[in-house]
Structures are given as C-alpha cells and as structure tokens.
Design a protein that fits this description.
The chain is an alpha+beta fold and 111 residues long. It has 4 helices and 6 strands. InterPro entries: Ferritin-like_SF (IPR009078), RNR-like (IPR012348), TRASH_dom (IPR011017), YHS_dom (IPR007029).
Amino acid sequence: MENILSWLLWGAFIILMMRFGCGAHMFGHKKHTHNKKQADGQAEAIRWEHPQSAVDPVCHKTVDPRIAKTAIYGGEVFYFCSDTCRSKFEVSPDTYVDGSAISRQTHVSPS
C-alpha cells in the first residue's frame, strides 16, 4: 500500500510540474504594460522591398534579388550570384564596397 501511495504522489507531483512548474504562470499570465498600438504603428512605418535587379559587388553580374544570396554590411543588404562570391565579400567587404553599381535595399513609406 505504501508503494502505491508513493507512486501516486510522484505522479501527482510530475503532473503538477508539467502543468504549473518552470515558469508556466501558475496564477495566470500577468498583463504587461507594453504599448501594443505604438509597437504596431512602428512595424507598419517601414516596409522593405527587394529591388527589381541587383549587381553582385564581387563579380559585377546582374542577379535576381528574390533568389540571390545576401549579406548585410554597414546596415545595407548586398546580393550575390553564389555562395563563393558571398564568401569572398564576407572575408574583405571593404574591398568590394565602393558605392558604384551596387544595389541597396529600399525603404518605402506606406501611403
């Protein structure tokens, strides 16, 4: 009888831990003071769109931004024709960033 009681207590303990333990908010989820309306407005303020075409800064080939490999450097997105070109760029980005014929990301304000 003692063995059955022990198993029942352990089973109840495990069920309680699964239900209420480890940060599961035993007494309900408390309300946060985040301003959801403000956060939603900020998310809508900037919309990012791919450019129609892009130029790989390493080999200077024209690439389709929808399927191109990408890297971010200096807060800008750069598009590459292959992993090889992206790897070369990531080793020494200053060598390839000269500001000419490089497609940059575009921010569009909502209308």
